[in-house]
Structures are given as structure tokens and as C-alpha cells.
Amino acid sequence: MSDFIQPNLLPALPEMVMLAMTCLVLVVDLFLPQEKRGFTLLLSVLTLLLTLAAVMFVAPVDSVSSFGDSFVLDQLAVTLKIAVCIITILVFIYSRDYLIDHDIYKGEYYVLGLFATLGMLIMISAHSFLMIYLGLELLSLSLYAMIAFNRKSLMASESAMKYFVLGAMASGLLLYGISIFYGITGTININELSTLVSAQADKNPVALAFALTFIVVGLSFKLGAVPFHMWLPDVYQGSPTSVTLFIGTAPKIAGFAMAIRLLVDGLSDLQVDWSQMFIVLAVASMAIGNIIAIAQTNFKRMLAYSTISHVGFILLGILAGTANGYASAMFYTITYAITSSVSFGVLLLLNRRGFEAENINDLSGLNHTHPWYAALVAIAMFSMAGVPPTVGFYAKLSVLQAVVQVDLVWLAVAAVLFSVIGLFYYLRVVKVMYFDEVVEDQVTSIKPALDVKILLSVNGLSLIGLGIFPSLLMAYCIRAFA
Amino acid sequence: MIETIVFYIFAFSTVVTATAVVTVRNPVHAALFLVLTFFTSAVIWMTLEAEFLAISLVLVYVGAVMVLFLFVVMMLDINIARLREGFVKYLPLGIAFAFIMLLLMLNVVTSDIFSNEAMLEPAAKAADYSNTKALGSVLYTEYVFAFEIAAVILLVAIVAAISLTMRKRTHTKFQNPSEQIRVRKADRLRIVKMPAEGE
Known about the structure:
The complex is a heterodimer. Chain A is an all-alpha fold. Chain A has helices at 13-30, 38-58, 75-101, 107-125, 129-147, 154-185, 190-200, 205-223, 231-238, 241-247, 250-266, 271-294, 299-319, 323-350, 366-369, 371-385, 391-405, 409-435, 450-468, 471-480; strands at residues 64-66, 71-73.
């Protein structure tokens, strides 16, 4: 019997800080009267800032692993964790007024949000099947509850139920794939898996491909790639807009991390197999996402289909299978999360008590009433469509050049074609805001708090800033895969 | 030899009871069959020398979870006829998919990788080997992080369940004895000065 060996706890400092602070928020919130709920928000933002500081404090030069190699802190993890924390701060602050107006301004909202963020941090650093699964479940469970948070809304309950059932099924598929890999290799550790798989790759291609299929299916469910995208539009539309904002931003980054940890770190020897699956998924996602989005009148639903098409682009970067491709996909994921936080952030502002702004028509004539917010939405739409000088252009360009580099020119051509189709519905939003008349009985006077105003403006302008100076972020993405 | 006999008896009954869980009509019987399934699988785990897991399966699942489950089944009036709606309609499609899946799985499972040659029988541990001790020594070292996260997931479940179901009833009438005792005359009685009504 071996002696008690204490693992190196320091690399997990951000997670520990976050967990301790979240429990503090949970308890403190219990004793606050409703009118002092702002303190919970303050404490939650403080939690995220402290976590951010802890991430920077423990950021290693090389990669560090702990807990029997099941936890890894490398350049990739540090960059993604910082991105997740910053975006969650934005989400929390943007959603405040919406929550107050819809009578769901409760501490549990922030507590569940923080737990979801903790799950994302764990997924980003996970280096064994067990940790990936636990992080994923922590994230998903919190999200299910957040979607159903507005108990008065029947639609929210319906979409939470849909998400729960399909999410549980996806987790089941993922677990099944994991169990077959465990059967073949006898390990759940990603590092050991990658060496054992390369030893088995020639002997047992069928069994490995079988297990891989389940992993890819589970992953695509979570990312929302076609044909496993059915839950996404319903969940985006049904959830309270503040939760849609959350689902549409930070978890995408965690999903990307999960794909990298599973497929690139663990199963790089099966790259030929999974990149072929990804080609099918990516083309289908870009086609279905962009074409069906044209028919949508609901803004949230339109953005859901747009998400599906962007997932296709992220898969393109990953399937290139080069360090350049992974870095481009990472850049794409982070900038997509930033972009969609702007568009949902403005949509949240348009909501007021008793009025749920979610149709594209609700934006009509926004330029006449609030030119600055119309401009922010326009920037976000241009960025999603990939129009220079916004960051979306550079993100698409870098993914495409990574795909061309591995001689998949036809894929790049297809991606560009579908992006052109996508341009239509992004520009329609701009047209509605700038050239349509104001609907008289729907004139909303937006009076956001100062912090929301500043953060939203900075967030929107960062899309142009990063578009002109992409290397600010790209340098970190390249270093993560160097 | 005796181990093989024990394995076959309990493996067979696991399969039979598991089938019964999904085929019997009475939900209470189904739950009881599930208890039996857990019990027989616990015995199989025991033959694999995983005595701690076997005991905890019996204690946690048979002892606690299934009792709760039985309570729920008995309390809810489940309409079985409605649950079976559309069963025949979707049966051919279901069978077709199940059959394809079965073929694919057989193809993999019967391949060399899971053959007896590839999967050697592990050596039996000595009689004084403690499975519980071995679990304990890694649970709080190598797996401490995963262990803590599992606890956090349970905490999230509690927070989510309470925040989704707890509602303050505003229309219930109740007495607050301490307020009743501390009541003063000024709280209840208001003396209003009025001019006297003249003729």
C-alpha cells in the first residue's frame, strides 16, 4: 500500500477560488433582502475577477499537470479560461435589467451561472475522460436549471425539458464512446490514451472508429452541429433572453476546448477518421444553418441558426488538423463569443416589463431612436457575416487559409458560398434598423445603466479593434498550439 | 469452478430480471424486478473482487434509491395505456434500427480486440487485499479533484431543484404568536378627534 501522496493543488487554484467564492455567494445571498440583490451581482463579478487573477497568477510557461495527470494547465487552458471569465462578467452585467423587469432577479441565477462557469473551467483543463464528463455535466445541469428559471413561462419550461432530454442522450452517447475506448485501451487518461491508441491504430481500426463515432456524435450534439442541431433553435428561442446570451457565448468556448482535448490531445492518431466525419458535419452545418436562418422572423431563432453555421466554420478549422487550423478555430470561437454577446446584449436592452423583444421587426427603425445601439448591432451583424474591417472577416479568413493549406480547396469554396448566402439575413437586420419606419406603439426608450452602456460600447468597438489588430488575440491562439 | 457456476447463475438471473423490468405491466413489479437486478449485479461485482462497490450498490441503490422509487411509483397514478400509445406504430422502425445497431456492435465486439487472448484474466488478489483501502488511497489523492466536482454537481442539483420548485405562498393565512403577544394598544387602536355634532 502506497503512502498518502498529496497532489499538486496549485494549478487548480482558479477552480478552488471560484468554488469557494460561489459557495460564499450562495450563503450571503440567502440573507439579502430583495432590494439589496445588487450586492449578489457585485460579489459574483468579484468572484469572476478573482478567478481571472488566479488564472493569471498560476499561468505557467510550459504545461503543468496534476491530480495523476488528469488535470492540465497549459497556454490553451489559460487563454480560454480568461476568455470564459471575461465573457461571463459581461453576461452577468448585461442581464441585470432584464432580470429585474421579468421578476427573476434572484441570487440563484448568479449562483447557477457561476457553477456553469466552474464547469467550463474544468472542461478546459480536463485531461481525462472522467474530468471532461464531470465538467460537462456541471455545465449542462446548471444550464438546464437556468433555462427553466422563469417559472411563469411555459415556453422556457418546454425548452428546458427538450434540452435536458437531448442533453442527457448526448451525454449517454459520449459516455458510451468513452467506455468503448476504455475497453480497448484500459485507460481514461488522455495522455495514456493517445499512446495506446497509436499502438492499436493498425490492429483494430474498426473498433476504434466505432468508439470514435460515438465521441464525435456526443460532441456534435453539445456543439450543435447538423444533424444534431435540433435542440438549438428551440432552446435559444424558449429561454429567457439573458440565458440565451449565456448559452450562446461562453459554453461555445468550453465546447471547443472539449473537442481539442478529446480529439487533438487524445485521438490525434485517428485524425483521418474524425476529420472526414467533421467534413460532413461542417458542410451540413453551414448549409442548413445559413439557408434556414433566411426564413426566420424571430431574432433569437435566427441567431440560433447562425450559431449552427458558425459551428460549421469552427469544425472546418479543427478538421484541417494543423496547428494553424486549431489556432484559427480557437480565434474563431473566441471572437464569435464576443460578437454574439454584443448582439444579444443589445437585444436584452430592448426588453422591458411586459414586452419581450425578440422579433427582427422589433428592431425596426432603431437607428432613428437609438443610433448608437443600432450601430453596435450593425457592427455585430457585419462581424458575423464576415465583412471587413470587423473581426469576423479575419476569423473566417484565417480558418479558410488553414483549410486551403491542407489542399481542401473545395471546402473553402463551399464555406465562402454559404457565407454569401448568410450575408442576406445579416444584412436584412441592418436594413430593418436603418431603413424601416419606427413602429409607433413599440417605441422603446432604452435607458441602460452606465456600466452596461460602457461595457456594451467597449464590447462592440472591440469587434472593430480586433478586426484591425487581430494579432492581439491571434498571438495567444498560435502560442496555445505552438 | 464454483466461481463460474456462481457467475452463470447470477448473470442469467440479471438478464432475466432486467428483461422483466421493461416487460411487466405493473410498475410496482417493474421496480421490484429492478431491485433484484441490482442485487444480482452486486453479486457479479463481488466475484470481480470489487466488494466495496458491491456493498455500496446494495446499500445505496437497493436500500435507498429504489425504496424512494417505489414510493413514487405507488403515489403516482401512471396511465400505462397512454404510455404505450404509438408503440406498434413505431415498432418496425425501432426494430430495424435496433437490428442494424446489433449487427454493428457484434462486428466490433467479436473482433480480435476483445478476444480472450487480448483480454487476459487478471491475477486474483490475496485474501487480505482490501478493495476499500485501495479505493480510499486514490480517492483523496489522485481523484480528489474529480471527487470534489462530483460533490459540486450534487450541490447544483440541490440549488436547481429548490430554486425551480420552491414558491412562497402569498395567500396562506397564519398566526404569528410573538407578534400577537407584543402588540400594543397604539398598533391596533386609533383615537380620532372629531368635532362634536351640534344641532
